[in-house]
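Predict fold of Phosphoserine phosphatase; 224 aa.
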Amino acid sequence: MTHRLAIYDMDRTVTFTGTYTGFLIHVAKGMAPWRLALFPGVILLMLAYVLKLISRQRLKELNQALMIGFNVERARLMPHVESYAAKVVAGNVRSGALAQIAQDRANGYRLVLATASYRLYVEPIARRLGFDAVIATDHLSQDLRYVRARIAGENCYDTGKLRMIKAWMAAEAIDRTQAHIRAYSDHVSDAPMLEFADIPFASNPHKPLARLAAERGWTRVDWA
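Predicted 3D structure, encoded as tokens:
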């Protein structure tokens, strides 16, 4: 095979806990502490999502608008993004995941972090962990002066994540028939990605993924 890829989900796979809410709170504290009083609105928006009144994508956009702002100057935002990435790497990364990442790198795999979290803060985390590429949810103004609370394209989740992985592979001129892929995730929403892989791993899986992994014969790993 010409290409070796090791594709990792991030939240609760590489990390112990999710990173999105922590990101919102960290940035709000650093940039506009008064926004913390709006946090009950985040809970209400989550309820609206559970009741299927809003989409997962719209939930993320509204939460960002509430806790960070609709339109934030990148130069003001990025120091807080970088400090949050440092915080995640310092205290919210599984040692077992780090060991596997190091082993895949030593075995010649290209390391890819594929996550529904925002590229805005995923890239600084990925850089610190030594990943070669990031596939993540993008902001509409990802490369402009101001960061808007709008998602460009798809939320990198479920079948959308697989589509984005395939699009990235096409952009990198990686033919699937010439690639050997290892994939790691904790959540059943990543079943499409895991099925796409040659060697799928249910990593610290929640119960639905644990059941599916047992049915499909996927390897389970439990990282400390």
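The mean pLDDT is 96.
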